[in-house]
Every structure is written in structure tokens, then in C-alpha cells.
Protein 1
Amino acid sequence: MLGIIGGSGLTKLPGLSITHRQVIRTPYGEPSGPLTFGDLGGHPVVFLARHGYGHNIPPHLVNYRANIWALHAQKVSHVVSVATVGGIHPELGPGCFCVPDQIIDYTHGRECTFAEYNGKQVSHQDFTWPYCEDMRQRCLQALRGAGEPCLGAGVYAAVQGPRLETRAEIERLARDGADMVGMTGMPEAYLAREIGLCYAAIAVCVNWAAGRGDSAEGISPEVIEANLAHATERLRTVLKNLACMSYGAEAPVAPGGVCDI
Ligand code: HPA
């Protein structure tokens, strides 16, 4: 089954007909909220708002372990994470989507692994390619099917937040090779890898990163809000397209169904 983690602006899933909500208890504490089970384009999905349904959990306080554990415990096999970013790459301006293929992690102090001292041999998980390529390709197909502009790959710089960056920090991230900057990509992606979920992200650019483009003198919250509202509306079709693909044991998509791809 497909799990959808909604970021800023995506506290509800447009077009989802909800069957039930479920509070999941995890060994790592409370997820950001109850999981919402429902039907999108005729296919079952589970939705979770990363920042809470009231959008009140800042990026550094999200319980990433509980969120990922809860989805896994509900037999989710594939996860798409929707995450807003500031654009660094010259072609990744506001309104553009990207399906990143790499991550640089600048976060700190977050619970970043399920591995705990339990007397077992320490093992180190491969993370050379941090996203599941199968899921990345599905995301790209869903975006293209919806006619959305998107970059097919890019380096996601995960920063601590909740503040935005300085101009010099963005220059440094650009020198490091980052194409976009966001606050929630890690440790979420790594935890998904550790637990065995096929995970990819759709990055939604809502502003030029600090010091670039129309953010040369600062980043206006109104600009972010407006771009976010517009992108969220367009994500409706993209996510429906994703839901319409088959995941594991589910029945394949019926031809002539409600999907746009
Ligand atoms: N920086 C970090 N995170 C973000 C930004 C940004 O400019 N825009 C949206 N999320």
C-alpha cells in the first residue's frame, strides 16, 4: 500500500475519501497524528501530515521515527514524502517540482536511527543512493502524467531549521553541490531505508533560496504562502496518479479508471 507524508500546506489530502483514522502507538512515542486511511482515485492509501493536522510541529521536533514506524506497521510498502524546498539550482524556481536523487544531511540532534544498544552486532546500512529508484520513477511518471514541470534528479540539502538560511549559507550549500534546501528530508529518508520502505520525495519549490532570484533581499512569507497554495492544488492530480499505480499485493490498475496517466 502507498503511504503519503504531507509536508507544509498538505495537512489534508485533496480528493481523499476517508474510510477511517487510526491512532498508532509506537516504541518511539507518538507519530505526528493519527494515520488517515482512505481511497484516492479508487486505490487505498494512508496519509500522515508530518507537521500535525494543525500544522504545529516544527521540523526539528517531528518524531520521524514514530511516523516511519507507524506507516511500516500498517503494511505500507511504498512512501512518497511531499516536502517544500527553497530553490538553489537555476532551473528549480518557485512552482517547479523535483524528485531528488541525493541528500546532504546538515541536521543535528534528531533521533536518526532505529538501531539501539541491544547487544547485537553493529551493522551499517548502505545509503549511497538514499532514495528508492522504483519509487522515484513512479513519482516522475506521476508528475509527467499531470503535465507538471519537474527536475528529474537533484541534491537535497537537509537543514535544521526552523529558521531560513543566510545568503552565505546558501552559497556554501551551492558550493557543496546542493540543488535545493529543505528542513524535513532527514532523518526521514534514512529511517525509511532502515526499516525497508521504498521511499522517495517530491520536492515542491516554494521560494528561491536566500540571496537568489527574488529572494535577493529576503524571503517573503507571503510569496511562500502563495506558491505553496498554488502547488498544493496541482499536487492533487500528481498524488492521484501515484495512487493509481499498483503496490505489491494490490490489484493492478483497471484500464479506463479514474487515473490521468
Ligand atoms: N529553506 C529551507 N527550507 C525551506 C525553504 C528554504 O528556503 N523553503 C521551503 N522550505
Protein 2
Amino acid sequence: MNTVKAIYPGSFDPLTNGHLDLIARGAKIFDHLVVAILKNSEKSPLFPVAERVEMLQEAISAFGNVTVATFDGLLVDFARQQNAQAVLRGIRAISDYEYEMQMALMNRRLAPGVETVFLLPAEKYSYVSSRLIKSVFQLGGSVAGLVPPQVIARLEARVPATGRDEKPKV
Ligand code: PNS
């Protein structure tokens, strides 16, 4: 029997409920889903890779067919090493499309055997990004309901309270 393995790559800095929504959708259509955290991103991350692995492992424990890994270098090389046939990516809005299309076409050129599959996250997460979560949290805004509770605890531990507490008292 043919089984389909997919890689869901990203920075996950931090994991959001939008990512988790996509993982749940991917877990339903692929036999095995590997959530793969890029190790050497050009961006300077808030959370070290080891902590992002922990966050994801806590969040995916209910899925029997989802695992977490890290990778370096080209995504398509990792996909081939893993014998994966597909890459899963989420598209939240049209603004994501151009960048995602470029990556998907470049990856297809590099590895014609690996297909990119796009899924839409739930509408309620269509504006949620790791970048916005960090920025809102750092400025003292609530991100409850947009990231798993254990991610909020990790944000509290990592983001200095001073920045968060300096809200004007009315
Ligand atoms: O969550 P992100 O930051 O949008 O994820 C981007 C990611 C990790 C999927 C992308 O940067 C990537 O695949 N990097 C690995 C290097 C690579 O393969 N580059 C060529 C892609 S066209």
C-alpha cells in the first residue's frame, strides 16, 4: 500500500494556533507528517531551536502520525532524506501567495518528485503570524487564544516583564 509522507517546514518562532490548525488538517490527509524546524534561519529568533522543538512536541502529542524534526540546508534535500513525497504549507491570505509560489516553484525545480500542497488555516487564524504574536506580546497585548497556553508561559519566561508592564494606568 502507498503511504504519503509530508514535511511541514517553518520557523515556528513561536508555534501559533494557526500552525496547529494546519498540523491537524495535514494529519488527516497524510499518513505521516513531519513538522520540520529550520535550524539556521537568517532571522534572529526569540526562541532557541531546542525550545521550539519542545513547544511543538508538547502540542502534537495527541496526534499519532505527527513527529517533530529539525533541518538545515535545502528543504528539498531534507524531504528526500526523509523519503517524503510532499511539502505542506499554509496560505492565510493572498499576500502569502507570491512568496509561497516562488518557494514552491523553486522547490519543484530542485526536486520534481516533491509536491507542495497548500492548505488554508481556519479563518479565525488568518491574520495570526509568529511575528505579530511576538510584537503584540512584547508591547503588553494579550495573545490568549492565538497560541497554545504553554507558549504563553514560555513567552512570559522569555520576554522581560518590564516591557509588558509599562502600560499607562488609567
Ligand atoms: O515559517 P517560515 O519562516 O515562513 O518558513 C520558511 C521555510 C523554513 C519554509 C523556508 O525558509 C525554507 O524552506 N528554508 C530552507 C532553505 C531552502 O530550502 N531554501 C530554498 C527554498 S525555495
Protein 3
Amino acid sequence: MSLSSRLVPLADAQRRLAALVCPLAPLEVPLAEAAGLVLAEDVAATEAVPPFACSAMDGYGIAATGEPAPLTLKVVRRILAGDAPGEEIGPGEAVRIMTGAPLPPGADAVCMIEDSDAARDGTVVVLGHSPAPGEHVRHAGEDVAADEVVLERSTVLRARHLGVLASVGRSAVLAHRRPIVGVLSTGSELVAAPAPLAPGQIRDSNRHALLALVAAAGANALDLGLVRDDEDLAVAAVRAGAERCDLLVTSGGVSVGDKDVVKAIIDRCCRDAEVLQVAIKPAKPLAFGRFAGGGVLIGLPGNPVSSMVSFELFVRPTIAALGGETSPPATARAIAAEALSRSADGKLHLVHVQVEVDGEGRLVARRSGGRASHLLASTVAANALALVADGAGVPAGAMVPVLPLTGAAWPASVRPFPVEQGERVGHEVEDGLEGLDGTCC
Ligand code: AMP
Ligand code: MG
């Protein structure tokens, strides 16, 4: 175990943790279970989409001749969506055809029903418009050509990707499964509701917040309960939990206090372990290591605000990396609605803020409440962390990078992750954040 009292820049701490994390082995996953997973193969179409030339309108399919309208044609049959195209049509003939129905051989254009006048018995139609070749026709392979690569590995599968996969005939894909993430609280003072509080006891709030964050980050959350500050009990709880998860997250007991149990956990359960003091505020203490079975342990600080900040900086990128994601969470930039003042202390400060859209459509950030790491209720209104670099802080009106909180609600008109700019987290912050880019194993 490496134990350092020196302050480690955030980016270094993230890199060292990232070095322990490998993407989980890909599995064949049915499409119905693949939303949110990361694709582990390049997907080439084996079928063209559409598979045949078909009508884009309800109307009449004809062979375009260039003759001026009106055109009087014999209607030889009707073709509905799902029908076979049938026989070739000849000169002077038309088919009544519905949207999505295959064009028969000989037809290469469609006149909309709105531009036609059919005889009462439907056997003859007068077209008021003479369509050009290809008009209102969807060509075979126009959307996707057979053999075309439609999706590349590392794509995070959203609804539109699943639609594309289904359209080319896939019922399952190779994808990284959702990590299983266990959450264990440590602390002899902790009690879960509804048990009454005895003198000196407090509620275990971290576990519930962290379990919800894990789920919001796209992993399967596993509640491992709470354990007293007893090294043997804590080690036993971690050993049992490690067998059931890919990542085990503890909170509490990672600082320098008496009875802080995480060092014992790390010593007795982990390899490649580190206990660090990260140059951030809040959430300075951090521990991580790897279990013999391959899983990862991250020990978060116990203070409730610290544990949630540490989740955003360390656990969320680890969940993403385990799930095969290659791009780190992105920041947006907002105008500080009020000064985010601080004093220089060698640390990056992470301030809970509420980001909103102002009357001119700009993102503005304002502090959500008090600053101390035990003031959990002060985070209720927050939807982002402002990254306030070391120094005197950010004056009112200046731009500040903001990291959207996992699962937080953003104003409906805002895209918290700018796709085009794709800024790396903490891009412009000295000693700022870096995603876990998975240089490992
Ligand atoms: P620790 O990191 O164990 O020294 O804890 C720091 C502070 O966080 C102490 O005031 C603890 O009582 C508090 N704390 C630790 N774990 C939790 C938890 N699960 N829920 C709420 N507060 C906690
Ligand atoms: Mg404790």
C-alpha cells in the first residue's frame, strides 16, 4: 500500500485510479436490455434499409415518361404495405400504392393521391401531376446499404441506436454489461431509520445517496449495509461484498482519525492500493485498490457532502470505464451569478451550484447553500459542481466550468454535455479533472 500525506493533484489521483480499472468483458445482450450500455463491436448491416424500393406516399405508382399532366392511366391493382410487389406494369398502367408498399417492376415514380382523380370503380385514374423519375420513391439501401458499418464500438446505446440496430435485423449486440456496484457505510455512530437514535448516534445518509448515484450513473447498485468501526468486522463485510460486485464503494473511515478502518481494509483485502490526500476541497481523503478477484475498491470520505463530491470525481468515471465508456464526463461553462470567492490553499474547490438559464438564454450558476462538508441539506437545490481553481475565486460575471451532477435535473432548454465542444472535464482548470481514460491492464 502506498500512503501519502502529500497533496496529490486531482488529475494524478484520477489517473492512478484509472490504471486499476478495466472495462468488463463484453457479453451478447438482447436489444431490450441494451439501452445505456456501451457497444463492444462495430456493427455492419447485413440487410439494406429499406430492403426494397417503396413508395414514400399514398398515391399511384407509374413509369415516369416525362409526358405533361394530366395523365390518364389504367389502375391494374392495389399494393398495400406488406404486400409483395407483384408483376411488372406496362405503359399506360398504374398501381394504387400505399406508403411503405414495394414498387412493382416497371414503376419508378409515385404521384400523390392528393394530385389524382380516380374513377368511382377505381379502374382508371387521372393524375394532375406528372412525377419525375424517383419522385416519392424510397430507394433500396437509401438509409443503410448492406455491409455498411452503422454503429462503431464504444457507442453508448441510446434509443436511436437501438432503432438502427433493429432496422438492420439485429436482435442482440455485444456490449459491456452494467457494473455491479456495492455500497457499504462504515462508522460506529451510524444508524439506519427507523431505529431510534441513541446518544452520539447519527443517521446513515451516505449509503442512500450513494446507492441512488450509482443507479443514476447506469450501474446496478447493491446495498451492503453498514458496519461498525471494527477492523475485523469491516474486513469481513468488504470480503463478502467484494465477491458480489465489480466495484465496492465504502464511505467513512478513510481519514486520519482513531478507528478509521479503511486502511485495514486496504491492507488486508487489496493490492495496488493507495491512500491519498487529494488536492481538492471538499473530499480530500481517498483510498482505492484492487481485490484479488479483479474488483475495485474505492474508499470515500464520510462527510456527506464530501462523499458525494468524491463520487462525481472518482466513482462515476470508474463506473463509466468499467462499462466500457471511453469519453470522460464533460463540463459545461456558466456565468457566475455571484462571486465564488475563496482563498488560495493549493486545492481545487468544488462548489455545489444551481445552474439555470437566464432571460437571455445564458447559463448562470449560483451557490446552492452553505459550504461546509457536513451541510448536506445545502446541496438540495444543486445540479452541478462549480470547479473553482486555486486562487482568489471567480468574480461575479466571470465564466466558471461546471460539472453536472449525476442524475441531476437541468433546465429543459439546456444540454449539459455540449456535444460539439466536447470539453474534457476541468479542461481549463489548473490541476483540474481528467476523465479516466482507461490506460490499464
Ligand atoms: P469519517 O470519514 O468516518 O471520519 O466521518 C466524517 C464525518 O462524516 C463524521 O462526522 C461522520 O459521523 C460522518 N459520516 C460518516 N459516515 C456517514 C454516513 N454514512 N452518513 C452520514 N454521515 C456520516
Ligand atoms: Mg468514521
